[in-house]
Specification:
By secondary structure, the chain is an alpha+beta fold. The protein has helices at 36-44, 62-76, 84-98; strands spanning 2-5, 13-14, 19-20, 26-28, 33-34, 49-52. Helix content is 35%, strand content 15%.
Length: 110
């Protein structure tokens, strides 16, 4: 784990360890993708650095990024059940997070 200043963290970097408040409650679970807006909100709340894993160049880990995103969506949708509407929403979020709605790979159904 590396503590990294928030301005140095690229968007969509996974959180290496859970972020806890002063009372030990989980604010963000480990593996949360740190989006640009989320990083800004954390900085506005006085958080200066976060535990993140070292980042590899994007071209070297595109498959890994997609796998991490699928795991993240699994976590977000763990109580959502299944069905066409849920799967359509998961797919839309998956494609949006990858940054391209056209030509983005499709998630495989479980």
């Amino acid at each position: 784990m590396v503590m990294t200043p928030i301005p140095s963290i690229p968007p969509d970097t996974p959180l290496a360890e859970s972020l806890l408040d002063e009372e030990g409650r989980v604010l963000l679970p480990a593996g949360t993708l740190l989006t640009g807006p989320l990083l800004s909100r954390l900085a506005n709340r006085g958080i200066r650095e976060l535990p993140v894993a070292p980042v590899e160049p994007p071209e070297a880990n595109a498959d890994e990024r997609e796998a991490r995103l699928r795991l993240h969506l699994d976590q977000l949708f763990r109580h959502a059940g299944s069905g066409p509407a849920v799967e359509a929403l998961r797919q839309a979020i998956f494609e949006h997070r990858l940054g391209s709605r056209a030509g983005a790979p499709r998630m495989t159904q479980k």
